[in-house]
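Objective 1.3, modelling of assemblies. Example input:
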Amino acid sequence: MTGATAPFGRRAHVGGALTTLGGIARSILAFVVVMLLIAIVWESAKWIGGGIWREAFGVALDPPHMPPLRITQLNDTNLPHVWEVIGALFEPATRRSEFSLFAVLLDAAIFTWRGAAIGFVLGAAIGLALAILFVHSGLLERALVPYVIASQTVPIIALAPMVVLWVGRDWPSVAIISAYLTFFPVTIAGIRGLKSPDPRALELMRSYAAGWKAVLWKVRLPAAMPYLFTALKISATASIVGAIVAEAPTGIAGGLGRAIIQFNQQFTSGPEKLWATAFMCAALGIAFFALVRIAEMVVLRNRMREVEA
Amino acid sequence: MNNDVSAVVEVHELNKTFGNAGSETVALSGINLSIRPGELVSLIGPSGCGKSTLLRVIGDLTRPTSGTIEVNGKSATRARTDRDYGMVFQAPVLFDWRTIEANVGLPLEIIDMPKARRAQRIADMLALVELSDFARHHPWQLSGGMQQRAAIARALAFEPRLLLMDEPFGALDEMTRERMNTELLRIWEQTGTTIVFVTHSIPEAVFLSSRVVVMSARPGRITKIIEVDLPRPRSDETRTLDGYFELITEVREGLKSGHVAGTTS
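Predicted structure (tokens):
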């Protein structure tokens, strides 16, 4: 909503697009820098308190480096070297496997993402529908919102086995559990966003004798978009976590959840595989987040940056 | 005068109270007002005098506690559902996600005007408020005065019979406000729309109006109605006429006497 504010100059759309591209480049650069910093901190810790360094980045160290401290948490079993984790990705997943760990994990990520994405779409739709319902009925809002909040206090790990019993040991179960985690932020942000229009904007619509559908489509939903995208970004990562948590204890095969269980059992012989799997999970979450962020930039390209909810 | 022409707005013995029994505030008390077609009537008074409330009652944004109101011979609700009103608030209330032309076209979308006619009407309205070059801009790319002109274009888009304006230029600087006043008169003369205009600026009320309705606070009521017989078309020259200053004095005296009466009663 624009008040009687000072002019913001004649910022052209082209300029806006360039700013956006610059923003993307900066985000990627910042991400790379943060990753490098983490790696540096990681290896520094090992340099001080890890196991004996016989090589670094594939180069043999002679004489080997003897870290001054010996800290269990930093030894090569608990915290493998960064290059060992990266290297593990390009070695066979198991001794008998013909595929690299990376290929296996990518395959698992795609399986998990399918369940998560379907759950995300389902959850977002249910979340938005609930928000629309609550905004139009104060009675329902007061009656049901406490239960919506209570629903999130049920540990997903307790719920997942039951859903699998009812729906079956495959991706539809994963989708339902993802939806369960996804809908909540969308409902809460949706209520706020749909109520965000200036009261005078609603009076204006009243003066046009506009029906509630027109008010919803032309005022409430567009006004709610920045709020919804903020929620969808949270939901995107939550849906991945939900999918993995749904897969892991219930033995749904094919996804990252199963991979975590499998490499957890092989931890002592190959810790770098579990680490690699953890990074794959994070990468999947970040990728899904980025996808929603790109959609947000496209949908909100003509807005003033006003809501940072 | 003009008794043969039926009134656009006819308010009779109207009262409006807020709050519940025991702690109620009388916003409007015993309001009688008749507005003729094509008039530009200003409501002026101190804050709390109920001028905005009266405008909102006329526009069916709130209901009176007692008394009657007719707009174009109908109830206010009927007039609203017949789309007899155009509204302009102090803030332009434009939608950021719509271009200026899409903002102006919003009421036309709601009445389902066919696209081709809609485009033509939008172009006409933008020409009227001299914003044709900014049709594809977004509201935040325009100055406050330009945003308010867009809001006026939007209010006039479906040719309402009655334009209700609630301190539309209150947030603008003095120079922009004077220019907007001149523009509003030009638009008023071109369209022949009846306008009810809420303001707290005495010069603005005198410069624009056919009649100035002076109100006082606690309880909100009409203390005086002043006919403004300055020649038209009005221009910057009008602001130098003796009659203009006399009327400003008259409105000011009216506001003062209302204030005294209001505080002693």
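Helices of chain B lie at 51-58, 76-81, 100-110, 115-128, 144-156, 174-191, 202-208, 242-264.
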